[in-house]
Write a structure and sequence with these properties.
Radius of gyration: 30 Å
Number of strands: 11
Largest sheet: 8 strands, mixed
Strand order of the largest sheet: 4-10-9-8-5-6-7-11
Order of helices and strands: HHEHHEEHEHEHEHEEEEHE
CATH superfamily of the largest domain: Endonuclease Chain A
Helix content: 40-55%
CATH architecture of the largest domain: 2-Layer Sandwich
CATH class of the largest domain: Alpha Beta
CATH topology of the largest domain: Endonuclease, Chain A
Number of domains: 2
Structural class: alpha+beta
C-alpha cells in the first residue's frame, strides 16, 4: 500500500492528517491502546485521545472493551460508506437551511429592489456587457423570462450555443415560439444532427448564407446584440442588452426579412 497516496485520499474525503495516520495504522493491527497508537502513528500523545474520539464519532474506529480501553479500525468499506452518508445528510440539511434563508432574503429584499428601480435614468434601457460570463448570464436570464417568442441570428463565436443550451428546450416546453437562423458556413454533420434534435422539441430552424450580426430577441421587447471586436486577433464579444419596444420592432423586421430568404434545415 502506498501510504502517502492513501493518506492524501483520506484527507481529501474529510479526515485531518492525524486522523488519517491513526486510521491507517489501526487497519494494520487488530487493536491498540491509545498511547501505543500515538507512537506508531506519529501522533502527539496529548492529541491522541482527541484524534481517537473524532475517528469513533466519524465511524472509522471503535472501542474494544476489556481490562484496558483498546481501539480498533472499522472495516474500510463500512467506515467510508457510513461517513459519506452522514456527510451527505449534513450537506442536505445545510442546503435546505440556505434555501430557506434565500427565500426569506428574497421576500425581504424584493420590495427594496423594486422601489429602487422605479425611477429610471435616461439610458437605463441600454446596457453594455463585455465579459463572457455576464453575457451568458444575461442571455439565460432573458430566455428564462420569455413567455411568447424567442428569435435569434446565431453565428460564431458563441457566448452560449443555443443548440446545447438547456433553457432553449425549457422555453420550448413552455410553448415559447423559438425561431433560429444559422449561417451555412457553421454547418457540419454533428451540428446538423444536434439542430435536428432541437427541431424535434419544436424549434423552427433555417439556414442563411450570411447573417449581419449576432442577435437575440425576446417577446418583442427585450434583446441582445453581440458584436465581435474587429481589431483584436482573438475574438472578443461585446453585447448590447436593451429593453426598447421600437428598437426590438426594428430588429424583428430585420429578422423576418432574413427568415423569409433563409432555407429550411435539410
Amino acid at each position: 500500500m502506498d501510504l502517502q497516496v492513501q493518506l492524501r485520499r483520506l484527507q481529501q474525503i474529510g479526515l485531518n492528517a492525524y486522523e488519517s495516520r491513526a486510521y491507517l495504522t489501526l487497519i494494520g493491527h487488530p487493536r491498540f491502546k491509545a498511547l501505543e497508537l500515538a507512537t506508531r502513528a506519529h501522533v502527539p500523545r496529548q492529541k491522541i485521545y482527541e484524534v481517537l474520539g473524532s475517528l469513533v464519532e466519524k465511524g472509522f474506529a471503535q472501542v474494544v472493551h476489556g481490562k484496558a480501553k483498546l481501539f480498533s479500525a472499522v472495516e474500510p468499506k463500512l467506515a467510508l460508506e457510513g461517513y459519506l452518508a452522514r456527510r451527505r445528510e449534513v450537506f442536505e440539511r445545510e442546503l435546505d437551511d440556505r434555501r430557506h434563508l434565500a427565500e426569506m432574503l428574497h421576500q425581504d429584499l424584493h420590495s427594496v429592489f423594486v422601489d429602487s428601480h422605479q425611477d429610471r435614468g435616461p439610458l437605463d434601457y441600454l446596457r453594455i456587457v463585455n465579459e463572457a460570463g455576464q453575457i451568458s448570464g444575461e442571455y439565460r436570464r432573458l430566455l428564462a423570462r420569455s413567455t411568447k417568442e424567442y428569435l435569434e441570428f446565431s453565428r460564431r463565436p458563441y457566448a452560449v450555443d443555443p443548440v446545447s443550451e438547456p433553457r432553449v428546450r425549457e422555453a420550448l416546453e413552455r410553448k415559447v415560439e423559438c425561431r433560429l437562423i444559422f449561417e451555412s458556413r457553421d454547418m457540419n454533420p454533428v451540428h446538423k444532427k444536434n439542430l435536428r434534435a432541437l427541431v424535434k422539441y419544436g424549434a423552427q430552424i433555417r439556414v442563411d448564407s450570411e447573417l449581419p450580426l449576432k442577435l437575440a430577441l425576446f417577446d418583442g421587447r427585450f434583446g441582445m446584440i453581440a458584436l465581435v471586436d474587429p481589431v483584436l486577433t482573438r475574438p472578443q464579444i461585446t453585447a448590447l442588452v436593451f429593453e426598447h419596444d421600437a428598437l426590438a420592432a426594428a430588429f424583428r423586421r430585420l429578422f423576418e426579412d432574413h427568415w423569409q430568404r433563409a432555407q429550411p434545415l435539410l
